[in-house]
Amino acid sequence: MTINKLGLIGGGNIGGVLFAEAAKRRLAKRIGFMDIKPPDLAKGKALDIAEGAPTISTDIHYDAGKEFNVLEGSEIVINTAGVPRTKRPDGTIPTREELLQTNIKITKSVAEGIQKYCPDATIISIANPLDAIVYTLYKILQPPKNKLMGMAGQLDSGRYRYFVAQEAGVSVENVEALVLGGHGDNMVPIRSCCRVGGMPVEKFVSKEALEAIETRTRKAGGEVVGLMGIGSAFVSPAWAALDMAEAIIYDKNKIIATCALLEGEYGVNGLFVGVPAILNKDGVAKVIEADLNSAEKEALAKSVAGVRNTCDEVEAMLKTM
Ligand code: APR
Predict the structure, then answer these.
(1) Confidence of residue 1 (pLDDT cuts 50, 70, 90)
(2) Residues whose CB falls within 8 Å of the CB of residue 18, separated by 6 or more in sequence, listed in order
(3) Does residue 307 register a pLDDT over 80?
(4) Spacing of C-alpha 222 from chain mean position
(5) 43, 45, 85, 183: which one is catalytic?
(6) Beta carbon of 84 within 6 Å of any ligand 1 atom
(7) Does 19 sit in the ligand 1 pocket, CB within 6 Å?
(8) Is 65 within 8 Å of 42 (Cβ atoms)?
(9) Are strands 195-196 and 175-176 parallel, antiparallel or unpaired?
(10) What span, in angstroms and rounded, lies between the C-alpha atoms of 318 and 300?
C-alpha cells in the first residue's frame, strides 16, 4: 500500500528527516517538499537525498521548492514550518507557547498554501505551540475533524517509554505508555495506563523513580534544547509523525496518542488536545476515552486549561491578521 503523494511543509531539521525517511520507507509514489528558505533549502535537501537514493536502492520522485505549488495533489501533508525553541544566550529556554507570535503568522501562510494546492489532504501538524497551531489550522481551513491532527503524544509517550525501559532494564518494546493533554510542561503522563510486558509499571519501577520519570518526560523537549544549544529535537518528532502517517497510509486502525478535536470527550469542547485515538485511512477515526483516576483527571483539566489560554490568544491574534 502506498499513497500517490506526501506533502512536507518545512524543510528544516524535522522536515529533512521526514523526507529522507519517507523516501527510504517508500511511503508515497511522490513527495512534495516545500520551504521558503533561500536560495532553495527544500530543493537542495531533496537533491542531496535523491543522490543518495541509489546507494540505498530506492527510487525517489519529488517536487521541491520555495512555493506551495510543489504540494499539488498531496493526500497527506506533514507541517513543520515554524521556528523551534532554541537556548537563549543567557542559558534559559523559552516555552513552546512563546513561539506563538512568530509561528501563527507562518501557519497562516501554510494554511493558505494547503487551501490552494491540496485542500482535501489529511494534515499532521508538528509546529509549536502544538495544540494552538493545530487550532489555528482548524480555524482557517475548517477541515472535517478526522482530517486534521497534531503530533505530540506519540513523541511524549515515546520519551516516557524510553525512560521507563531504562529504569526497568527491559526493552522499549515491552513498555506501553500514554501521555495526554497539551504538548507543554503540564502534559499528563498516565501512570495507570503504563504497562511493562503487559504488567503494571509499579511492579518494575518504584513510585519515587516513576515520579522522577514523569517530571523528566514533561520537560524532555527542553532537556534536548538545553543540551543541543541550537534548535530542538528533530529525529524523534519526525519518527513519531511518520508512525501516524503510516497508520493512515496502511489503514492500520492503530491507537496513537494524537492531538485531536474534542467535542465532549473528556469534558472538553472545541479544542485540540492529546488523547488516544484510532488512526486509519480516514485519519482520526475515533477518539478513545481512557479511564483516568481522579488525580489524572485533575492534571488533564489543568493541562487543557493551558491549551484553552493559548487558543484564546490565537483567536485574538487571528482577528488582527
Ligand atoms: N513556509 C514554509 N516553511 C517555512 C515558513 C513558511 N512560511 N516559515 C519558516 N519555514 C521553515 C524554515 O525556513 C525552516 O527551514 O520552517 C523550517 C523549520 O525548520 P527548523 O528551524 O529546522 O525547525 P525544526 O526543528 O524542523 O522544527 C519545526 O516543529 O517541533 C516543532 O518547535 C518546532 O515549531 C518548530 C517546528
Answers:
(1) confident
(2) 8, 78, 80, 238, 241, 242
(3) yes
(4) 16
(5) 183
(6) yes
(7) no
(8) yes
(9) antiparallel
(10) 27
Instruction: Say which CATH number the domain at 74 has.
Output: 3.40.50.720
Task: Retrieve residue 73's grid coordinates.
Answer: 495533489
Residues 188 and 288 placed together within one structural domain of the fold? yes
For 262-279, give one letter per residue: b (16+ CB within 10 A) or e: beebbebeebbbbbbbbb
pLDDT at residue number 321: 87
> DSSP letters of 64-131?
EESSGGGGTT-SEEEE--SPPP---TTS----GGGGHHHHHHHHHHHHHHHHHH-TT-EEEE-PSSHH
φ/ψ bin of 188: left (φ > 0), alpha (ψ from -120 to 50), beta (otherwise) = beta
178 and 251 in a single domain? The answer is yes
Amino acid at 49: I
* Closest protein CA for atom 29 of ligand 1: 127
- CA of 85 from ligand 1 middle (Å) equals 10
**Helices 153-168 and 207-218 sit at what angle, rounded to 10 degrees?**
150
Q: What is the pLDDT of residues 267-306, one digit of tens each?
A: 999 999 999 999 999 999 999 999 999 999 999 999 999 9
Containing domain of residue 286, as a range? Answer: 153-320
61 is catalytic: no
* 262 DSSP β-pair partners: 271
Atom of ligand 1 nearest to the CA of 234: 25
End-to-end CA distance of the chain: 41
For residues 203 and 57, membership in a common domain is answered with no
On whether both 41 and 157 belong to a single domain, the answer is: no
